[in-house]
Amino acid sequence: MTSYDRRDLGLLLLRLGTGGVLVAHGTQKLFGWFGGHGIEGTGQFKESVGYTPGKPSATAAGLAEAGGGTLLALGLATPAAGAAAAGAMAGAAAVNTPQGFFNQSGGYEYPAALGLTSAGLAVAGPGRLSLDHALGHAVDRGWMVPAALGVTAAVTALVVGARAKRLREAKQGEQEALFETPEP
């Protein structure tokens, strides 16, 4: 089979688009490109939203986005690339969940869409217009899909769960006003 069909072209377009967006977001975090804040600024933000320590959290998110995005775009190690990107987006969605679903309200719509697309690509595979195909799927075996998604889901659950616990504990330390004070 040497001819490519529309599925291959469709997967290529999804990989390039999703991968490109993820690379841009990851390089904002890692290098401050495209108006980003780099490791320092992103680390401070991560600390402020409960992902501690901040710099390692920023580095992990940046690498998962930039690395996962690059590999998705290339169609290389697609199960691991899609899983890493999906995990990073799950962490981002957790931050945005209190604002609701829609992006215009600061909600989790955008990271959810990127994460689901990344996970979908991990499951569907890269298609024939990919490095995985050119290399005989050496790093894109069937067993790698559940392994990559399973490990990523477990790590993401631990990280997001630890963040939620820190936020709950911080909120418990705050005391609400016992009485309303009348305005003068």
What does this structure look like?
The chain is mainly alpha-helical and 184 residues long. Helices cover 69% and strands 0% of the residues. It contains seven helices and no strands. The protein has helices spanning 6-31, 38-48, 54-74, 78-96, 109-124, 131-134, 144-173. The longest helix is centred in the C-terminal third of the chain and has 30 residues, at 144-173. The radius of gyration is 19 Å and the shape is elongated. The termini are far apart. The mean pLDDT is 93.
Strand content: under 5%
* Average predicted confidence as pLDDT: 93
- Summing up helix and strand content along with how strands pair, one would put the structural category as mainly alpha
What oligomeric state do the depicted chains represent? single chain
Range of helix content = 55-70%
Report the radius of gyration as a whole number of Å: 19 Å
**Helix segment tally:** 7
Order of helices and strands: HHHHHHH
Indicate the low-confidence ranges by residue numbers.
none
Features:
elongated; about 180 residues; mainly alpha; about 0% strand
Outline the fold blueprint.
Elements: H1 6-31, H2 38-48, H3 54-74, H4 78-96, H5 109-124, H6 131-134, H7 144-173
Helix pairs in contact: 1-2, 1-3, 1-5, 2-3, 3-4, 4-5, 4-7
